[in-house]
Amino acid sequence: MIYGYEWDTSSNLAFALSILPILGIGLLVTLEATVCGFAIAMVLGLGLALLRRSRLKTVAWTTAFLVEFIRDTPLLVQLFFLFYVLPIYGIVLPPFLTGAIALGLQYSAYTSEVYRAGLDAVPKGQWEAALALNLSRANTYSRIVVPQAIPRVLPALGNYLVSMLKETPVLSVVTVADMVNLANLIGDRTFEYLVPLSLVGLIFLILTLLCSAGIHALERVLPKSGISMR
Question: Any stretches that span the bilayer, and where are they (predicted)?
């Protein structure tokens, strides 16, 4: 019995139906971790991209080093560092928050490069027009450059969203009760791993297909020239 649910392993179909409510709990955790992690990656990634374009060389070089360091170290190592090392210094985070931060931090390095490419793709004339209008650097980015860059970076950001979704099972190593964690727990209790793990794989397949379809639909809706920030 797990979370108050019981099942009969005499039938694979009955077994699969009986464990769906349990996996549904893990599905909710998986989606929450993905949304929180991606929100962190979107915001932090944009900040890193802007800092890397700073006119101060020390800021730009430090940011570039930080981005490369995050990209070149495994997510699992970063997750273990946040979960096991930070408590030594008095910083104790809940498992779910630790996992969301680890996902967001890892993918912020990738999204920052996506943002940087999108900002570089904005025509030079747009920058010159903003300069001619005497717009501040902040207004140039917020009202002119970033809105035009968003449609250009959307496909790549969508790919990273799907990748992050498929990376959430890593969080099970720090006791986050995602789908894979619960599927393994079911297998430990029933000695039946095929059905729960197959269901988890099927659910992930459906989720990734839905995410891809949503991103393609959003691409068609957003104007190619950029969104309005008025």
Answer: 20-51, 79-105, 193-218
